[in-house]
Amino acid sequence: MEGERKEAMTQDAMQQTADTEQLQEHTPPASEVETPAEENDLVARIEQLEAELAQMQDKFLRTAAELQNYRRRVEQEKRQLLDMGKALAIRPLLEVLDDLERSLEAARQAETQDPGMAYHKLREGVELVHQKFLDELARLGVQPIEAVGQPFDPALHEAMMQQPAPEGVTPGTVLQEVQKGYRIGERVLRHSRVVVAASPNGDSQA
User: Fold this and answer.
1) What's the pLDDT tens digit per position in 105-144?
2) Does some domain include residue 8?
3) How far, in Å, CA of 196 to CA of 159, rounded?
4) Which CATH number fits the domain that encloses residue 175?
């Protein structure tokens, strides 16, 4: 009986030891257990980060809106500058149109009296309008491109056809201007359409 009692006590002690060890395995160290103060700090940190994120999102939306408004202002200013440029270019041409209308009216009035006088007035008026138009183009910086007698230059001229070079004319020289070209500064507005002198053997110089 005494032996059985000791054996039972030994088994109970061993079971208690096992239970204690198992409990220790599932219980975190005291250093890893968060105190109420640490939990409060963690919550405060999370709230702070959320507030900073909200501020960043608000700043991003404001910046995007400002960029969109800036783009709209730029587009509006571009349209205004374009309209202003058109107005500055067209306004002087209205005076040319006025001169042309006056010349036509004078020719119509003279036609009832003397057809020859009507032709003279019309020609005189057209020449006046033509010169005034050229003056306005020059005022805007537009100049005709020299062509006849000049060496063919593909940057300035467009060859429409070739003809045998007359005696004394260097092949590749512009013989005739089919349509006048214009430039503003170094920029070509329209190439001169020209006829170019070809070499006697038919080699192209254009």
Assistant:
1) 877 777 777 777 777 777 888 888 888 888 888 888 899 9
2) no
3) 6
4) 2.30.22.10
CATH at 75: 3.90.20.20
Cα separation, 137 vs 130, whole angstroms? 11
Domain span at residue 50 reads 46-140
**Count of the separate structural domains present in the chain:** 2
- pTM equals 0.53
What is the C-alpha separation between 57 and 51, in angstroms, rounded?
Answer: 10
The one-letter amino acid at 146 = E
Same domain, 136 and 163: no
Q: Going by C-beta distance under 8 Å and a sequence separation of 6 or more, which residues neighbour residue 31?
A: none
40 is a domain residue? no
Burial class (CB in 10 A: 0-12, 13-18, 19+), 176: middle
Which DSSP string corresponds to 104-164? HHHHHHHHTT-HHHHHHHHHHHHHHHHHHHHHHHHHTTEEEPP-TTSBP-TTTEEEEEEEE
Please give the backbone phi and psi of residue 25, each rounded to the nearest 5 degrees, phi first: -65, -35
Contact (CB, 8 A) for 121 and 106 = yes
